[in-house]
Amino acid sequence: MQKITPRLLSWASILEDSTREQAVTTARMPFIHPHVALMPDAHLGLGATVGSVIPTLGAIIPAAVGVDIGCGMIAVRTPYDVSDLPADRRALRTAIERAVPLSAGAANSRISRQHTEQRLEVLAREADEAGFDPGHYAKRWELQLGTLGSGNHFIEVTADESGGVWLFLHSGSRGVGNKIAQHHIAIAAELCRKWHIQLPHRDLAYLAEDTVEFDAYIAQMRWAQHYALLNREEMMDRVVRQFAEWVGAGDASEVQRVEEINCHHNYTEQERHFGRTVWLSRKGAINAESGRPGLIPGSMGTASYVVSGLGNAVALNSAPHGAGRTYSRSAARRQFSRDDLRTAMAGIEYRDTDAFIDEIPAAYKDIDQVMADAVDLVEIRHTLHQLVNVKGD
To answer: Is 321 one of the catalytic residues?
Structure first.
């Protein structure tokens, strides 16, 4: 751990100057308590540094929570071993691609399964209790439940160090979460202008506690976080069904879920730290309370980790959420080629397309270094390597 300023502590051994400056700016906000914690995967972000843990008193910064509210991971450990799997992994990949709509803006054509309807009923009731209409933000919000999205979102079949097979995916609250976030980011900016608040950066506009605007944001943000969690559950159900058919198990109920972990890494919760109850925003970080299971993915061609939190109080009980980018998407496309991607993905079944060049593993930090930096934040339980990768372009 490195003390950058009294209110900014860093666990990142690799930290660009621009990232450091952005984090310092956030840490100077007057309502930070006790400090901002930078995770090992920290890199420049919109609004606030990705890989930062931001505790606030009496205020919240919507842009520091981020636009993909509730983004996170879900993993299911199956009872299968790599030696049990059919040789044709392409068949599983294409089956998953048919079952889960991919790419930005993708949606289901209809709602047809009972469990999907049950999840939507829960979300509709919660939205009504929160006093808002999700359809005001995204007309197709119901049809996007169970969809992946693009960018660094993925679905994978992986194997751990003993050959045990895990199903693993990464996604968030889709279009409706993005629209909710953008709406409240704009409200925070307008209120700060109205109150003549001088901000060090426009993306640090905040909402003050005990205001109508603050309460509306918290209620809708919590709804979006639950949407993201249920979205991952819905996709995992579909992946398990396809996996069951592929291995010849028949119905999905025949695939025992030996362990299941579903965790956010872009969200806010009220927690108690250093004697005060704060709004703790984890923007690209997971909860790593003592004994708490968590998931830390690498890139599409490197290891991912199943971890257990160590409850590091100085790190605000947090840990990294992944590898963290070292190249922007445009820079990665200039630097790397499709042949480079093929080399990096050797032995992994994936869709061979130019669309994924900006997701090449070399565009990310070394996940092994990230995990070395996180040695006092989490304990590694399992190391996962990809067998099949599914992404949206």
So the answer is: yes
